[in-house]
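Sanity check

After download, print the first record. It should look like this:
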Amino acid sequence: MEEVVFSDGSVEVVVLPAAGARLHRLRAWGHDLLRTPADPATHLDDPFFWGAYVMAPWCNRVEPGPQQLLGQPLDLAPNFRDGTAIHGQVYQRPWDRRPDGAFVVRAGGDGWPWPYETSLRVAVVAGKVRLEQGLVNRSTEPMPAGLGLHPWFLRPLQVAIHAERVFRDNTATTPDPVPVEGPFDLRAIGPMADGLDGAWSDVAQPAAELAWPRSGIRATMRIAASTVYVVAASPADVEAIALEPETHAPQAFRRLRNGEPGALAVLEPGAELRLVTDLAFERDAPA
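Expected structure tokens:
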């Protein structure tokens, strides 16, 4: 499987175009920071719990099967163990690399009736990783649209999410978020409790901080998009934490139908939704 490497000598990113243009590896000063499988082909066999992958044209769980959205018929197959259609359509498909260096893939026109193009541009400069994502509506009708990035950051890890409100359960979100409290109040950096799976809104910048005390590495995450959410999950049986920049809240089909906050964007033909994630790394004294 082809590996495309981006490096400034201290920080390195390895992208697999044939596996959804996902980040197979992220290293800082020789330390692996993503959950990276020994065999890159694992990303194709078990796509949801490794590396960092693009989510488009929606993120997180939506209902599968025949339905209507924006007056168009959808018929999405379930692809996750809970019977939902999760994380879009491009996380596992082969992507192409354009002469300008961007990774691109075209999809849609099937159970998702709108053709679209998704792009990813990676840059590593002076200890900072920039990930620029784009989603273009290539159909002749308005298209629902969402973008996200799903990294699995290795533990032991300390996390801060600088947000005032949260949807506390991504499997069955309420229409409106609630103020952060208890284990969902992550405004100060520290360990994240096991078993959380929520979506944070009213996000400040930097949106998040990460620290790996054993290796003495810290990072800040800044997110630029028309709307910003941070989804985080800390399953007890995975040696990593997901910390995901996204453009909408979970269960986004329902939100769009009902006019709830955090719904998918609606792109006119030819319009583009963008999401830019900056991860800035620095060294600290290891514990």
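If your output differs, re-run the checksum step. Summary of this record's structure: The mean pLDDT is 96.
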